[in-house]
């Protein structure tokens, strides 16, 4: 401690504020269950720098925040999974194990380092049935949330999660789930991100070997065409919600004391 | 260096000291070397004869892909140790490997190799090039040279679909590595001389995947016919060769019904003509 005294509470609070502000500057990412597995959707203008990734046969990863930090978590996760699958058996690698590893590392870094990581992570595992699916959301301080059905994180996480909660239903088709995700990611009255700026992937339990599949190009466009033509399949009874929530604050402007550096603000870091 | 157990997420900045490769084998080598296939241990006496061996893998290209097939017999000396062993392994979506030689080492290689390819793909966000895949396998074989000298020889045959060329490619290896790219077809294992002779006569340029699967089944039968360590189709137990096809749609192992159909067709013909189809003289 170079200058004077700061209470532990104050230090922790400052670190948490710092991390929260960093994460809040980025865009949101949405993860939700659909009938055949789990869908990941992230607005991401970069084609090469992913926010969504495969970790293992049944396990996917999504992250928001500082790219270099969550990339390191991603690589660590892949190593953890591959080494365990090779040591024991492929079926012995679980999403829970990975979530615990991330939680302990995030927690350790939060308490021990001067700067906590500015990341939020989702570890999702697809099961043989929808009951076997798991979505774990981890925050910068190592807290783990076992989410049911869907998770949102990043910039306007609360608003996005609110919109998700309104529209999410169990066992949606892939097209419906994508529609719900895009609606959740779009501010009421706002414009949806163009196809070229969408990163979409699924963990599809019906696939053989590795369940993770990135949806790109023609396949994604076909899927989006299915979603936008029959506009709102979700129960058209309570659509009075969008006008009820007006412009949703000026969430786009970064907070005044946001950290410097390569926080993911939606533009390509390269 | 980050120590063994606190790894996966070592957020210490070791830029340039530890740039990290995308190779799983290299990572395991520094993190937990005991997990890698044994290297360089010298045994008092060669034990090659006491360990089950796998024999005869064949592969051939067709228009837009490659087929690989293997018989099911494993032998220890003159004993048949297993009748339904699997020697052709899927490596990733677009490649596979067959193994001849010490079965245990081969299976270990196949397991490690699959992780190696997937690890690279996940870390880099792209698949390794076909030549890269062939080279990685060569490195693994080279690492096993000391064991090979003790009689624990394992030699793979590698086949992959190359999306850049839209064709199948075949690579073979010797105990010291390789890779040697093969045109059209190749065979490894104790029955390979007979299989290769058969393939030489039966191979047709531009054949379909189905025709090439049939050709490989014929070649395996010819190998089993003359090599005691290669198993022919076991009709009473319904054990058929393993046949895998790789093309632009990826890797697929032919279902048992399909293979048994081919085998039955071949056996019926062999009842009339025991040496199999006759290639035209001119």
TrEMBL record, chain B:
One of the record's GO cellular component terms: proteasome core complex, beta-subunit complex
Regulation of this protein's activity per its record: The formation of the proteasomal ATPase ARC-20S proteasome complex, likely via the docking of the C-termini of ARC into the intersubunit pockets in the alpha-rings, may trigger opening of the gate for substrate entry. Interconversion between the open-gate and close-gate conformations leads to a dynamic regulation of the 20S proteasome proteolysis activity.
Subcellular location: Cytoplasm
UniProt GO BP: modification-dependent protein catabolic process; proteasomal protein catabolic process
Keyword Phosphoprotein included in the entry's annotation: no
Main location: cytoplasm
Pathway the protein contributes to: Protein degradation; proteasomal Pup-dependent pathway
GO MF terms held by the record: threonine-type endopeptidase activity
Propiece residues: 1-54
Catalytic residues in the record: 55 (nucleophile)
InterPro entries from the UniProt entry: Ntn_hydrolases_N (IPR029055), Proteasome_sua/b (IPR001353), Proteasome_suB-type (IPR023333), PSB_actinobac (IPR022483)
Keywords of this entry: Autocatalytic cleavage, Cytoplasm, Hydrolase, Protease, Proteasome, Threonine protease, Zymogen
EC number: 3.4.25.1
Gene3D superfamilies: Glutamine Phosphoribosylpyrophosphate, subunit 1, domain 1 (3.60.20.10)
Free-text function comment from the UniProt entry: Component of the proteasome core, a large protease complex with broad specificity involved in protein degradation.
Family annotation (PANTHER family): ATP-DEPENDENT PROTEASE SUBUNIT HSLV (PTHR32194:SF0), METALLOPROTEASE TLDD (PTHR32194)
Subunit structure, interactors included: The 20S proteasome core is composed of 14 alpha and 14 beta subunits that assemble into four stacked heptameric rings, resulting in a barrel-shaped structure. The two inner rings, each composed of seven catalytic beta subunits, are sandwiched by two outer rings, each composed of seven alpha subunits. The catalytic chamber with the active sites is on the inside of the barrel. Has a gated structure, the ends of the cylinder being occluded by the N-termini of the alpha-subunits. Is capped by the proteasome-associated ATPase, ARC.
Record-stated family: Belongs to the peptidase T1B family.
Protein name, UniProt field: Proteasome subunit beta
Protein's organism: Nonomuraea rubra
């Amino acid at each position: 401690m170079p200058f004077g005294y700061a209470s532990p509470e104050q230090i922790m609070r400052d670190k948490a504020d710092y991390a929260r502000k960093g994460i809040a500057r980025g865009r949101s990412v949405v993860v939700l269950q659909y009938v055949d597995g789990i869908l990941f959707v992230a607005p991401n203008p970069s084609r090469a720098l992913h926010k969504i990734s495969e970790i293992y046969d049944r396990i996917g990863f999504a992250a928001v925040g500082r790219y270099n930090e969550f990339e390191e978590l991603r690589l660590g996760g892949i190593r953890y999974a591959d080494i365990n699958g090779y040591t024991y058996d492929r079926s012995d690698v679980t999403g829970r194990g990975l979530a615990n590893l991330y939680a302990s590392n995030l927690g350790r870094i939060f308490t021990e380092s001067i700067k906590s990581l500015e990341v939020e992570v989702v570890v999702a595992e697809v099961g043989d049935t929808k009951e076997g699916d798991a979505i774990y959301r981890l925050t910068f301080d190592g807290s783990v949330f076992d989410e049911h059905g869907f998770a949102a994180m990043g910039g306007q996480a609360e608003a996005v999660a609110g919109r998700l909660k309104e529209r999410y239903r169990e066992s949606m088709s892939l097209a419906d789930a994508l529609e719900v995700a895009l609606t959740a990611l779009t501010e009421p009255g706002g414009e949806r991100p163009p196809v070229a700026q969408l990163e979409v992937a699924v963990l599809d339990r019906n696939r053989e070997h590795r369940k993770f599949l990135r949806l790109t190009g023609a396949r994604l466009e076909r899927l989006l065409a299915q979603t936008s033509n029959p506009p709102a399949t979700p129960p058209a009874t309570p659509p009075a919600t969008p006008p009820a929530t007006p412009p949703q604050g000026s969430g786009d402007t970064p907070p005044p004391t946001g950290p410097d550096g390569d926080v993911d603000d939606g533009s390509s870091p390269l | 260096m980050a120590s063994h157990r606190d790894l996966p997420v070592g957020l210490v900045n070791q830029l340039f000291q530890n740039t990290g490769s995308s190779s799983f084998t290299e990572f395991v080598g520094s993190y937990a070397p005991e997990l890698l296939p044994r290297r360089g241990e010298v045994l008092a006496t060669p034990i090659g004869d006491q360990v089950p061996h796998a024999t005869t893998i064949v592969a051939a290209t067709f228009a837009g892909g490659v087929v690989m097939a293997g018989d099911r017999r494993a032998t220890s000396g003159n004993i048949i140790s297993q009748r339904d062993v699997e020697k052709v392994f899927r490596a990733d979506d677009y490649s596979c490997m067959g193994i001849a030689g010490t079965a245990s080492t081969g299976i270990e290689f196949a397991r490690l190799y699959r992780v190696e390819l997937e690890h690279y793909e996940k870390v880099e966000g792209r698949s390794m090039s076909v030549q890269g895949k062939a080279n990685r396998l060569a490195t693994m074989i080279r690492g096993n040279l000391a064991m090979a000298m003790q009689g624990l020889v394992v030699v793979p045959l590698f086949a992959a679909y190359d999306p850049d060329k839209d064709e199948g490619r075949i690579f073979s290896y010797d105990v010291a590595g390789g890779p040697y790219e093969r045109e059209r077809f190749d065979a490894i294992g104790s029955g390979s001389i007979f299989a290769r002779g058969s393939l030489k006569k039966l191979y047709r340029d531009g054949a379909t995947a189905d025709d090439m699967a049939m050709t490989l089944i014929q070649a395996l039968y010819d190998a089993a016919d003359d090599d005691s360590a290669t198993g022919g189709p076991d009709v009473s137990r319904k054990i058929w060769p393993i046949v895998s096809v790789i093309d632009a749609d990826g890797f697929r192992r032919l279902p048992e019904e399909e293979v048994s159909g081919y085998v039955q067709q071949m056996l019926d013909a062999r009842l009339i003509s025991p040496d199999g189809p006759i290639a035209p003289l001119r």
